[in-house]
Write a structure and sequence with these properties.
50% helix; EC 2.7.4.25; binds cytidine-5'-monophosphate
Length: 218
């Protein structure tokens, strides 16, 4: 039986992770947060003192990554890394290791292994293009850069971090530019993906839209 996959790609802080997790919960499907694998790789490499542009060494870290995905919890080498990987510096590191082709190759099968019955909702940058090109539904989920910066700002403030919104916007734009410009698996809106611009949408409506698309596609 082919395993149904909903691929949700989009830029950072677009809310795709929240939407993807909620769609998965609503359908009773598995969920893949592919960005977490790049974040964990960056974190593990840094912990070993490996330079993030050392492609061979970082790809070995990726291939041997000891990560466990539990419900609402992510372990790295048995330790809770759920909060740690959300750190802005880890996100920055993730986007650095993500440009390395050998790292992407090392993580490919691991991502595909998440596809199990009754289905999978996967979010990232290349879910529809590289990891699950045969996905039953492909969504490109985005929001204006200023709106994304403001969402990230509120998240960080809620966590008690002192942040500067102009700086956040700058970081977001820099990361988007790197994700789009890289030669391997760049962030792009595929011709067969449906566009979901959430700039003025609530999470509830965004989730409902994806569920409606899935219903009409299946
Ligand atoms: O989605 P998230 O912000 O957690 O991803 C962190 C970084 O990992 C992104 O900026 C991107 O460079 C990289 N990434 C990727 N391909 C994916 C998911 C994430 O290159 N499928």
């Amino acid at each position: 039986i082919p395993i149904p996959v909903i691929a949700i790609d989009g830029p950072s802080a677009s809310g795709k992770g929240t939407v993807a997790a909620r769609v998965a919960a609503a359908l009773g499907w598995h969920y893949l947060d592919s960005g977490a694998l790049y974040r964990l790789t960056a974190l593990a490499a840094r912990g070993r003192g490996i330079a993030l542009d050392d492609e061979f060494a970082v790809s070995r870290v990726a291939a041997q990554l000891d990560a466990t995905f539990l419900e609402g919890m992510i372990l790295l080498e048995g330790e809770d890394a759920t909060e740690l990987i959300r750190d802005e510096r880890v996100g920055e590191g993730a986007s650095q290791v993500a440009v390395l082709p050998a790292v992407r190759t090392a993580l490919l099968q691991r991502q595909r292994d998440f596809a199990k019955l009754p289905g999978l909702v996967a979010d990232g940058r290349d879910m529809g293009s590289v990891v699950f090109p045969d996905a039953s539904l492909k969504v490109f989920l985005t929001a204006g850069a200023a709106e994304r910066a403001s969402r990230r700002y509120k998240q960080l403030i809620a966590k008690g971090e002192s942040v500067n919104i102009a700086r956040i916007l700058e970081d977001i734009e820099q990361r988007d530019a790197r994700d789009k410009a890289r030669t391997v698996a760049p962030l792009q809106q595929l011709p067969d993906a449906r566009l979901l611009d959430t700039t003025e949408l609530s999470i509830d409506i965004a989730v409902q839209t994806v569920l409606d698309w899935w219903k009409s596609a299946s």
